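Worked Example 4.2. Read the sequence first, then its C-alpha cells.
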Amino acid sequence: MNRQAERLLDEYGGSMLRLAYSYLHNMSDAEEILQDALLHFLRAGPSVAAGPQEKAYLLRITANLSKNRISYNRLRAADALSEALAADGREDLSFVWEAVKSLPTPCREVIHLFYYEGYTTAQISRILQRKESTIRSDLHRGRARLKEILKEEYDFEEGL
C-alpha cells in the first residue's frame, strides 16, 4: 500500500466505513465500499488539498458507491445481514443506532453526517449535493421520526 493510501485510510477510513455501513447495514459490504472508494480516489488523482475538502470528497464517493451497492443488491434481492454497530465503544447507545437505521435513507444519511461526523447543514449540503433547505427538512423529519420510534420501541423520550 502506498503512503497516500495509508494516510487516507488512517485519517478518514473510520468515517468512510461508518457512512457506508449506515447505508448498507452490512459490514462486509461497507468494507468493500471503503476499499472501492479509496481506489477510486487514488485512481482519479484529484487535486483536492488534504483537509476538510479531501474528507468531504471521500465521503461523497463513499455515499455514491453505497447507493450504487444498494441498487445492485436490490436487483439481486440479496438480504442484508443484520449487524449491530456500536460506534467507538458507545454500546449503551446501540439502541439509538438501531432506530436510526430504520429511518428513510435521506434522513438517515443527514442524521449520521450531522450528529456522528459533526458536519453543519451547509457542509452536508455540499457533500450530498442537495439544497441546504432540503438537508434541514430531512434533519427535522429524521429527528421527529426518531423520537416516535424511540418512544414506541423503547419508551424513551428524554433528550431528543
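Now turn to a second chain, presented in exactly the same format:
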Amino acid sequence: MKVLTVFGTRPEAIKLYPVIHALRADARIESRVCITAQHREMLDQVLHFAGITPDHDLDLMQARQSLDELVARALIAVGRVLDTERPDWLVVQGDTSTAFAAALAAHHRKIPVCHVEAGLRSGDLHQPWPEEMNRRVIATFAALHCAPTEIAADNLLRESVDPARVHVTGNTVIDALLRTRARLLEARELAGTMRAMEDRFRGRRIIGVTAHRRENLGEMHAIAATLRQLARRPDVGIVFPVHRNPAVRDVMQAELAGLDNLALIEPLAYPEFVRLLDVAHLMLTDSGGVQEEAPALGTPVLVMRETTERPEAIAAGTARLVGTNCDKIVCETSRLLDDPETHAAMARAVNPYGDGKAAARIRDLLVSAPR
C-alpha cells in the first residue's frame, strides 16, 4: 500500500513526523513524502531534526504571496505529484492552506484522504482564519478522520460524518513532544539557543511568548504594549521567538528591542522550542499547538485569542483564554506569577491530548480502513 503524506508548515511537520516514521517502519506500507514548503526555513529545521528527506519538494513559498496564489499553486503542484505517485492514501494534517489544497486535489482524483487532527472547531469561520474553513471543508470528503479527542470526534458526528470513519487517536504532537524531550535529556546540546536564555535569566521565572496568527496581526501593537508592561517586573525573563512575518517582526523590533529582561530571538528549532516549553513558568501564545504541547510538560498557557478550537484545554484547566486586551493579559499573568496555588492548579491539570501513541494508531487505521 502506498501512502503519500503532504505538508508545508513547521507545525504540520512536527505533528506528522511521528506518523511518517511509523509508516516507514511498517513493511506493508510504501511511504512517500511531499512538501509544499509553505514555510521554508522553519520547515527545514524540523525535517533535519526528524531525519526526513522529502521525495517531492515543491518549494512554493514566495514573498508576500496571497492566500489565493498559495492555494492555487499548491492545488496544481500537488495534483501533479498525485498523478505521478498514484497513492492509495493521501495523509494531511490539520487546517493549513497546504492541507486544504492537497486534500482537494486528492478528492478531484478520488484518492481517499486521511485527515490527522480532524474535528477541531472554534465555531467562528473567521477565528482562526482561514484555518477554520480549511478543516471544515476537508472534513466533508475525508475518508478517515483521526480525531485527537472525544470532543473533536463529537464535532464530526454532529456534522453527520459517518461514525465508522471517525476514530479517536490522540494528538500526534504529544508523540513528537515526548520523543524530543527524551532526546534533549540525552543530548543537552540540542537545546541550543535556550541554554543561553536559561543562563541569561537565571534566578528569574521565564515567560515564553509566541504571536503570529493572521487574525491577530492587527493586534501586534497591543501585544507589544502588554509585553513591555510585563517586562517591568524584575523577577521575570521574557523569551519571545519572533515570527518572520514582517507584520509581526517589524512591530516587535520597533517597540521591544533593548529591554533588559525581554529577549527577542530568532525562531527556535523544534528541540529548542520544546526546551522553552519545559522551562517556562507560563506561556503566552496565540498558537494552537502550544495549547496542546505546554500542558503535557506542566506549563500553564494563556491564550491570546477570543476563541479556541481546543476547548479540551480550557475545560481541563491547562489553558485560559485572555484575548489581546493588555489589562486582562497582565492581570492573568500576574496571578500565575504571584499566586502559587493558581499556578499549581493549572500545572497539575491532566493534559487531555493523548499518551504519545497516536502515530501507531493512525498507521494501523490506514492499513485496515476501507477506501
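Notes for the reader: The longest helix spans residues 67-85. DSSP finds 16 helices and 13 strands in the chain.
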